[in-house]
Design brief:
The protein is of the alpha/beta class. The protein folds into three domains: 3-68, dopa decarboxylase, N-terminal domain (Up-down Bundle); 101-346, Aspartate Aminotransferase, domain 2 (3-Layer(aba) Sandwich); 361-475, Aspartate Aminotransferase, domain 1. Helices cover 43% and strands 14% of the residues. The strands form three sheets. The chain has a seven-stranded mixed sheet, with helices on both faces. Strands 10-11-13-12 form a four-stranded antiparallel sheet. Helix 5 runs parallel beside helix 13 (349-383). It is globular and about 60 Å long. The N and C termini lie far apart (61 Å). The relative contact order is 0.14.
Length: 476
């Protein structure tokens, strides 16, 4: 492909993108293909000679698109949407065109300095204290791993990387069952071991850690000769929105001298609205915080904002400086590859800049507030609908519910059947989780273009398909 062809196809794909997003409501939200369909439609062997873009693009539409679940669909109420707004897509296109690897300041000064400024903007947007500095990670999983490695090194007086964990005291980290599984993976990768991730019982309407139990577990571990190194708390847990009492968690962390990492991957975006900051009181006392602009701020995946109270600790944990990465004659510069596990780094800050400038904080706040309002409304409607019960009340734009018609013998199986029928229907897309052992259905609004009409349709689809299930149930 030459540059003239590139320009032609760039314009064509841009038009295709406009039509895709303009007509996306006509598509089933979840892909309807069967396992193996896409794989078997692809040749078993690579091509020996090149193919023209006309044929390649035709195959893209014929083979790939039927196998796409449409995350940008306004009736995607599953997981947490990875949003892609037009300015973010354009910024990502520019980033791909420039193709800079922003591993060092000298490798792309604009990449480093725009990232620093964007992290300052995000810090101000969330109302965080000025003592936090930030770095863009690829995902919350990477941020959590970096935090776990830092709490490990700090507790071991920076000996773990050099000496390993053999011969050290048993390290212990504390969290509830409501945290994301990325926490488990971080514990594995950091060499701490899953058995040393201590699960704290939950209590209260927000399903947060029982702080009395947390304090007792740490005291018990100290008595056994273990070394407590950190607490991982969540604000808006993935399953049902569980939220820990951050101020009380930080009190305990300070009491025992352990590191605190706060996972607000989805819910953190809502903190651009001052009224929602009540959900993380004491946040400025945390050591590490992560949230994903790619989940609820309209920034193209992947883009995770990681704030650190003491970045020197993070750099001391992760920095490696071979000769070929040294920058001579420059003081007071930041090399963000020393703040991340990967060395290579995409130019992610560009899409934050484009989105914040395009919509402004007020535009983003309006979107988030609407999602929260509409979620409360559909939850209230379902609560008033026969045979439905709300299991966990709305936390921001997430709640869980259950279909419980009278005389249903296996409610878990029935709710799985309802979920399957809803997703096979294609008009909306939902997912499930378990709350206190019961299978429940999750609803979360977060796609950038979702309207109240889309949320109203979700209620209609849920109740319509449930009514059909009751007919099938009673006719058996």
């Amino acid at each position: 492909m030459n540059w003239d062809e590139f320009s032609k196809w760039g314009a064509r794909i841009s038009g295709w993108a406009k039509n895709y997003h303009s007509n996306i409501r006509e598509l089933p939200v979840r892909s309807q293909v069967k396992p193996g369909e896409v794989f078997n439609a692809l040749p078993a062997n690579p091509p020996e000679s090149g193919t023209g873009m006309e044929e390649i693009f035709a195959d893209f539409e014929r083979i790939v698109m039927p196998g796409i679940t449409h995350w940008q669909h306004p009736r995607f109420f599953a997981y947490f949407p990875a949003n892609a707004t037009p300015p973010s897509m354009l910024a990502d296109f520019l980033s791909s065109t420039i193709a800079a690897n922003c591993l060092l300041w000298q490798a792309s000064p604009a990449g480093t300095e725009l990232e620093t400024r964007m992290m300052h903007w995000l810090r101000q947007s969330l109302g965080l204290a000025d003592h936090f500095e930030g770095v863009i990670q690829d995902s919350a999983s990477s941020a959590t791993l970096a935090a776990v490695l830092t709490m490990r090194e700090r507790a071991l007086n920076w000996a773990g990387n050099a000496q390993g964990l053999a011969g050290q005291k048993t390290l212990r980290v504390y969290c509830s069952d409501e945290v994301h599984t990325s926490v488990d993976r971080a514990i594995w990768v950091a060499g701490i071991g899953g058995d040393n991730l201590v699960r704290v019982p939950i209590s209260g309407p927000l399903r947060g850690m029982d702080c009395d139990a947390l304090r007792q577990l740490i005291a018990d571990d100290l008595a056994k000769g273990y070394l407590p190194i950190g607490i991982i708390a969540c604000v808006g847990g993935t399953g049902a929105g569980a939220t820990d009492a951050i101020d009380k968690v930080c009190d305990i962390a300070q009491e025992y001298g352990v590191f605190t990492h706060i996972d607000a991957a989805w819910a953190g975006s809502a903190m651009i609205c001052p009224e929602f900051r009540e959900f993380w009181p004491g946040i400025d006392r945390a050591d590490s915080i992560v949230f994903n602009p790619h989940k609820w701020l309209g920034v193209q995946f992947d883009c995770s904002a990681h704030f650190i109270r003491d970045p020197d600790d993070l750099v001391r944990t992760l920095a490696i400086r071979p000769e070929y990465l040294k920058t001579e004659g420059q003081d007071q510069i930041i090399n963000y590859s020393e703040w991340s596990v990967p060395l290579g780094r995409r130019f992610r800050s560009l899409k934050i800049w484009f989105v914040l400038r395009s919509y402004g904080l007020e535009g983003l706040r309006e979107m988030i507030r609407n999602h929260v309002k509409w979620t409360a409304e559909i939850s209230a409607k379902l609560a008033d609908t026969k045979d439905f019960e709300i299991i966990t009340q709305p936390f921001l734009s997430l709640f869980t519910f259950r279909f419980v018609p009278k005389n249903a013998k296996d409610a878990d199986a029935l709710n799985q059947q309802l979920l399957d029928r809803i997703n096979d229907d294609g008009r909306i897309y939902l997912t499930k989780t378990r709350v206190d052992g019961k299978l429940v259905i999750r609803f979360t609004a977060g796609q950038f273009d979702t309207t109240q009409t889309d949320v109203d349709m979700a209620y209609d689809v849920i109740t319509e398909i449930a009514a059909g299930l009751i007919v099938d149930f009673t006719s058996q």
